[in-house]
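Hello again, I could really use a second opinion on something today. I've been staring at a protein lately and its backbone has me curious. Can you walk me through what the tokens say about the fold? Take your time with it, there's no hurry, and the full record follows here:
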Amino acid sequence: MQPAKEVTKASDGSLLGDLGHTPLSKKEGVKWQRPRLSRQALMRCCLVKWILSSTAPQGSDSSDGELELSAVRHQPEGLDQLQAQTKFTKKELQSLYRGFKNECPTGLVDEDTFKLIYAQFFPQGDATTYAHFLFNAFDADGNGAIHFEDFVVGLSILLRGTVHEKLKWAFNLYDINKDGYITKEEMLAIMKSIYDMMGRHTYPILREDTPAEHVERFFQKMDRNQDGVVTIEEFLETCQKDENIMSSMQLFENVI
């Protein structure tokens, strides 16, 4: 499997740590709109590629394959309920489940598995810390294991959710201790983990203090009452009013 070469190389201060696209607001009269993820975009997701790699025929390139694999007989319990909960089709869910069971016969994913996945797709950096944070965001009940149902519900939000849903998920990622608030230290820890994973050489110029500068700028915007923490309401309101942040939402799949 090839490393995630689709990851944007330049950094201009995204909330996610790597926004490399010119904000659409700066293009002539173009208003930002939430992109609709195509199959090709879906296949760029590291977690999807990891799952489907075990179901692809030997010697094939899963990056340009379809999610609807032929003769899929695996089916999760409550498939109809999962289809209602997510924005995946029945065939997509069957294919994802097949790969999930192949990779994780116990039906559970642990944190070490996440670390292996991201080490494979981001070999140029250290993905350990980011994989830890991402795993905790998926592990809603904090029991150290992720079931298929929780896994695909999270993927559905990240890949096909509304902007509001993605922002709520992002808040949960940044709220490391799950106390309902984001501190500057928490935001910096996530940002630094993304920079570490992407690798220093992927950026034209990256100073050591770049993540801290980005966090300082975002935190000043978000902490509206200057109490030292960001609430979910402050986070949602600020992000939805800031076109630079909104345009970064389309890059979620680059680090998921």
